[in-house]
Every structure is written in structure tokens, then in C-alpha cells.
Amino acid sequence: MTSGEGLRRWYRSVVDEYRRRTPGSARMFERGGGVLPGGDTRYSITTPPHPLYFERGEGPYLWDVDGNRRLDLNNNSTALVHGHAHPAIVAAVRDRAAIGTAWGGHSPLEVEWGRMICERVPSIERVRFANSGTEANMHMLKVARAFTGRDLVLKLDGAYHGTYDGFELAAAPDGCVVPSTGGVPANLSANVVLGAWGDTEGVAALIRANADRLAAVILTPFRSAGGFAHPPDGFLETLREVTADVEVLLLFDEVISMRLGMGGAQGRYRVTPDMTALGKLIGGGLPVGAFGGRADIMALTDPLGDMKVALAGTFNANPMTAAAGVAALRLLTPDVHDRIDRRGARLREGLATVVKDRGLPLRVEGGGSLLSVACEPEVTRPDVLMTGLPLAFGNRGVFGFPYLSTSSVMEEEHIEYVLESAGTILAEIASAL
Asked: 199 an active-site residue?
């Protein structure tokens, strides 16, 4: 299937409407180009013809600098599980800010925060905090290498574990492991073996073939790069069995998949890794990262014990993030998890039905409170469709496509509005094809 002139006309009309509605964001983007390269400091949220600039958020909504209100299904890349400016989180942060934001010492809050994480996540007996998911994965791998005395890590090709040199490697057309972005030393490829998501037998064979050099296997147990998806039956269970058999550590990146339940994906799928990295929702909307695992592994970071890995960070477990994180986790009860999952299921099922009814080359994937929309392989110009969709929904007051998440402050009426908008937009696309 080709994109066709009809689809290009649809795209141009969507862009024209977007420009008409967002002149303030356009001016801010142009002004930003004078101090930021390309007007950007976070490439994943900058899209043509210009990104949106927001002034405030409240509950499930965002308001941009032009005064447009949008239902937020992005939730800062899934981090805001309770929406914007939740009163309990705002109160916790305000109270904390009034008595000090950070200091060169510990805070009682970090102990409470750590206890809550250890109680929720099956694999975490001890936890350390950081300031991003990238840092959490980076530190987790360093500790895994120190514990095993080996350097090699197996990751899945295309998986994202943050902007860290050690993970920014991918398969070239000839099968070689090469840097996936500029600035990554080519020799780091010697430390990485690549497997494929869902290839149970292939990944198991790679683990066994490299066991004498392999420190760890890292993966997102719920696929996030390339579209949200549950793992194939037996995939996680086999990796757990094989890594345990050859004494290689199994690492889960649950920065996103903690949304799948009180214990994250590992609790949902009943597969317990040796270590886990966290981020996003555990910080209540503030910058955060954390990693943890078995007590004997984490003991390598104990400054009063036999410390083999020295980890510091001026803002690790800072009182502001700790206050927001504790408040957010207190709010995230089993009942709340069930509610955001129900909203997510309704949205997935409704979007899939609209796509099917319109006969469109799109697929809707996901699980729990997470879902994604992607083009089927037969689309020859997916850029036109996948760039136009977020703009079209934005023009109707919905922000977040194509990676969506529900929040605890969303009601059924919000989901119905998204589906109503989808019906109109996808009907226009079907007519244009």
C-alpha cells in the first residue's frame, strides 16, 4: 500500500490547521533555536513542523502557550501515572521545599521510599537511587559486571535502555554490532551480544554460547521500543531458567513496565530477575532512577562493607524527589492499578475496532495502562501517516500519539472522547487512501 497523493493532501491540511492553532509554540521554537541546537534539548519530543510548548498541567489536561487544552495521553512518556499537579503530590513537594530541597546527607524519606520499593518489587531486596532511568540501567550493569567478574552483556537489538554508551549499540546489515548513534566508541561493541525480541531459542543459545564471558542479560520484559507488547509465552521463563543454569545475571529494565502492576512486569508474569532498574512513575513527576536486586549483589555497593562499586550522585534520593515519590506510590494502590488498566483496555479495544472498521494499515498493541499505534509493514511512507496522526489528534485536543498511557485521574468520558476523535480522524485517513 502506498501513501498516495490523497494522504499527502490530508497531511498538508492537518499541518495547516496545527500551525493555525499553535502560533505561540512556533514562535517559542524559533526563539529556542538561538540557544538550543535545533531548538531542542530532548529529541524524542521534537516533531515537525514545530513541537508544542506547554504552560501548565492539571489532572488529565495540559494547556499550551496558545491556550489550547489537551487531554494528555503521553503523561511525560508514561511517568505521570497520577496526571498533572495531583493535590497530594503537590502538597508533599511544597511542604518539603519549605524546609530544604537537598543537602549533603541522608533523609528519613529515602528510607521510607526504599522500603516501599522493596516491598513491591519481587526481585529487589536492596535498592539504590539515581536521577534517571539511564543512570539506573548504567549502574545496574556496572554492578552486574563487578559481581560476575565478566564484561559481556547480551541485549535485544533495538531495545532502549537510556542514552548510555554501553547500550547504544545495534546490528548493522551485515550482522556486526555497531554504535547506534554518533559519539559511541566503536570498540564498545566488543562488550555486547545482540539477541532478538521473542526469539526464545535463539537468545537461549546465545546465552549458553557466551556463558564464560557473559555478565548479564538485560531486557525490557514488556516490549517498549517499536511498540508496546507482552512477551511471547515462555520467553521470559526460558531466559530465567537458562541464565540461572549458567550463572549469568538476568536484568529487567522496568522503567516503563512498573505500570503493569504493584510488582511491575515481573510481578505480572511471575518471573523474577536478579536485578531491576526503575524510573518514571516512582518519582511522582520529578527526575528519578533506581536499581536494586538480591542483597548479596547489592552488597557490592555498600560503603561500609566490602564495596567494589563506588556510586555517588549529588541529587541521588534528594528529599524533593523522595517526597514526590513516596506520595505517588502511596496513591498507587491495587485498586488504582486495576482502574488504569481498565481504562487502557477500553482504549486499546476501542482503537483496534475503529482501525478494523476503517480497514486501515495500522496495528494497536499494548497491555495494562499502556498502548501504542504503529503502521503495518505494507505502508511505504509511514512517516506521512505517523507524523500526521499526532498532529491530527492534537488539533482535536488529544496529546500523546502514538505511545499512549492512561492515568489515575482519567474517567470513562475521557476515553470515549479519544475514541470519538479517532473515529473522525481515521475516517478522514481512510477516505484519503
From this structure: no
Dig out the grid coordinates for 286 from the structure.
520529578
pLDDT in tens, 364-385: 999 999 999 999 988 877 888 9
Gap between the Cα atoms of 9 and 5, Å rounded: 6
Quick count: other Cβ atoms within 10 Å of Cβ 376?
12
Write down the pLDDT at residue 95: 97
Grid coordinates standing for 232? 511471547
Active site includes 253? yes
Say what the pLDDT of residue 1 is: 44
Query: Does 173 sit behind a cis peptide bond, omega within 30 degrees of 0 on the bond before it?
Result: no
Sign of the Cα torsion 261, 262, 264, 269 reads negative
Cα distances (Å, whole numbers) of residue 173 to 176, 177, 221, 302:
7, 10, 26, 43
Strand locations in 185-236 (E): 192-195, 214-219
Looking at residue 379, what is its pLDDT?
80
* Cβ–Cβ under 8 Å, residues 422 and 390: no
Q: Which one is catalytic: 72, 280, 341, 403? A: 280
The rounded distance, in Å, linking the Cα atoms of 196 and 199 is 6
Active site residue 280: yes
**Do residues 4 and 11 lie in contact, with contact meaning Cβ atoms separated by under 8 Å?**
no
Query: 3-state class of 323 per DSSP?
Result: helix
The three cell numbers locating residue 336: 488504582
pTM, two decimals, is: 0.96
- Candidate list 64, 253, 274, 341, residue with the active-site label: 253
From CA 360, how far away is CA 384, in angstroms rounded? 14
**Which residue numbers in the chain have pLDDT < 70?**
1-3
Angle between helices 334-358 and 412-432 (to 10 degrees): 20
Q: Contact at 8 Å (CB) between 249 and 297?
A: yes
Q: Which among 160, 269, 341, 403 is annotated as catalytic?
A: 160
Interstrand relation of 398-399 and 177-179 (parallel, antiparallel or unpaired): unpaired
Edge-to-edge strand list for the sheet holding 398-399: 54-58, 61-64, 69-72, 398-399
Distance CA 404, CA 242 (A): 34
Question: Which helix (H) or strand (E) element contains residue 5?
Answer: helix 4-21
Residue 433, pLDDT score: 83
What whole-number distance in Å separates Cα of residue 428 and Cα of residue 433? Answer: 9
Distance of alpha carbon 128 from its chain centroid, rounded? 20
CB 96 within 8 A of CB 107: no
Is the separation of the CB atoms in 73 and 406 below 8 Å? yes
pLDDT at 377: 85
Q: Which residue has the cell 519549605?
A: 98
